[in-house]
Amino acid sequence: KRKAPLPPCDAAESVSYFCSCFLHNSLCSNIYIRLCVINTNHIWKMHMVKGQEGLGIKITGGRGSKRSPHGIIITHIEEGGAIYRDGRLHAGDELLMINNQSLVGLTHQEAVAILRSAAGLVQLVVASRVSAQTQTQTLEA
């Protein structure tokens, strides 16, 4: 029995579960917990020097791609590469621009060509996924 109904989630994703034990296996009454999570993008700009070894990333996506047709996504960061050493980018980040050239709407091959042609000081505009908890509610069952 719930004392009050839960309002609908406004967020993109919700996770609901029952908890009967917590804190060092001590028993407690059942508690209904509802977490609403929304994913947002944090868009930011960075500069880095691309050496002879390259940026050290693998990407997926682009127009016509089955995996990620709406963007160019970093899938892997090579250990020891420029981006790995810098530490700010992560797998899952979306590349939006390279040296003021938009990657949005380009094919995978076009994006790879722009990345390969970039030399010296490279400007990257990136969208990173950020999860923000928007609602937490606990009600005794």
UniProtKB/TrEMBL annotation:
State a single Pfam family of this protein.
PDZ
The PDZ domain sits at 45-130
Q: Which domain of life is it from?
A: Eukaryota
Coiled-coil-forming residues are none
- The protein here is known as PDZ domain-containing protein
Provenance organism:
Neolamprologus brichardi (Fairy cichlid)
